[in-house]
Amino acid sequence: MYQFNEFKTRTALDEKLAEHIGNILAQGVAANGKASIAVSGGSTPKGLFEKLANMDLPWQNITVTLADERWVDFESSDSNTRLVHENLLQAKAKAATFFHIKQGDELTESVLAQLNQQAQAQVLPFDVLILGMGEDGHTASLFPCSAEIAQGFAEDAQPLLAVQPTTAPHQRISFSFAHLANAKNTILHICGDSKKAVLDQALANKNHLEMPIRAFLHSDKITTEIFWAE
Question: How far apart are CA 38 and CA 78, in angstroms?
Answer without folding.
Answer: 18
